[in-house]
Amino acid sequence: MQQSINMLDFRKSPGNIINEVYYNKKKIILERGKKPMAVMVPVDLYKKLFLDEDIEIYTKQRVGEFKKEDKLAKGLSAKLKKLLK
C-alpha cells in the first residue's frame, strides 16, 4: 500500500510513521505543499531494489553499448524496414 503524507504531519509523529513503514510494509511519499519530495520504503524493499548485486543500473553508456552489440545485419535491417512500412 502506498500513501502520501505532508511534512508537517510527519514531523508530528515520525516514530509512528516509521513503524507503519517497517512493520506494515507501507510505502509513504513525503510531500511539501503537494510536491513529492521523498519516499519512505521498508528496508527489505530498499535492499531488494538498490543493493542487490544482480541488478544492473543501465546508464546511457551501457545502453549505447547494448545498441552497438544488438544491431541487425544491414540486409536484414533493410528487409525489416520494408515490411514495417
Automatic annotation (TrEMBL):
- Put simply, this protein is called Antitoxin
**What is the species listed in this Swiss-Prot or TrEMBL entry?**
Candidatus Roizmanbacteria bacterium GW2011_GWC2_35_12
Superkingdom of the source? Bacteria
Quote the SUPFAM superfamilies the UniProt record gives.
Answer: YefM-like (SSF143120)
Q: Its family?
A: Belongs to the phD/YefM antitoxin family.
